[in-house]
Specification:
By secondary structure, this protein is α/β, with parallel strands linked by helices. Helices cover 25% and strands 29% of the residues. It has an 8-stranded mixed β-sheet with strand order 2-1-3-4-13-12-11-8. Strands 5-6-10 form a 3-stranded mixed β-sheet.
């Protein structure tokens, strides 16, 4: 069973539809009680860092999520801003992150980007796994995913980098530390590549 954290930020229905297509049980959590039987957690997110953190902090689920992730070690994956929230902090805002992965979220340096339209980083791009980890099983070669972001996730420990993408230089487009995973791209918008990845997460 995969549990989607619905704190008012992110396209929950898109993830529900993906899991229904691949015939994997999924539920949506809007309260602390909804989380108590979670086996796998998905933390989606879009928009501004501080807004997303405020929404989660005010949802009544933050304390329970910390307990599930940090003490019970339930597998969790943060997606887009959901990944950025797992860091210590972000240059986009002033609030503290969840501090689930030792990282800082930084803004891309536009002077290093060759594209005419520099920010946000938007559209399809390669994702190259740098370590043999189960999340990218079947996606080791030629996998592309959909991105939409202006800030990127900088791991303080390079061992936490799971995959990289090129955009004005390489950045960590996926991270992993223990039971905690983060991906900067949108698997729910990435067709069969995204389905494979979400299926892999459900079967960790």
């Amino acid at each position: 069973m995969v549990t989607l954290i619905d704190y008012g930020v992110g396209n929950i229905n898109a993830f529900v539809n993906v899991y229904k297509r691949v015939d994997i049980p999924v539920k949506v959590a809007k309260t602390r009680a909804d989380l108590l039987d979670a086996e796998k957690l998905i933390l989606p997110g879009v928009g501004h860092f501080d807004h997303a953190m405020s929404q989660l902090n005010n949802s009544g689920m933050r304390e329970t999520l910390d307990e599930l992730v940090l003490f019970k070690e339930i597998p969790v994956i943060g997606i887009c801003v959901g990944m950025q929230m797992m860091a210590n902090s972000s240059e986009e805002g002033n609030m503290e992150g969840l501090k689930w992965i030792d990282a800082t979220v930084k803004k891309f340096d536009e002077t290093k980007i060759q594209q005419v339209t520099r920010l946000p980083h938007m559209g399809w791009n390669d994702v190259k796994p740098v370590k043999d980890r189960h999340l990218f099983r079947g996606l080791e070669k030629d996998a592309i995913f959909y991105f939409l972001h202006t800030y990127y996730f900088e791991c303080n420990n390079t061992e936490d980098i799971m995959a990289v993408t090129e955009y004005g230089g390489e950045f960590a487009s996926a991270a992993h530390h223990g039971n905690k995973y983060g991906i900067q791209f949108h698997p729910e918008k990435s067709h069969h590549y995204g389905e494979i990845l979400l299926n892999n997460f459900a079967n960790l």
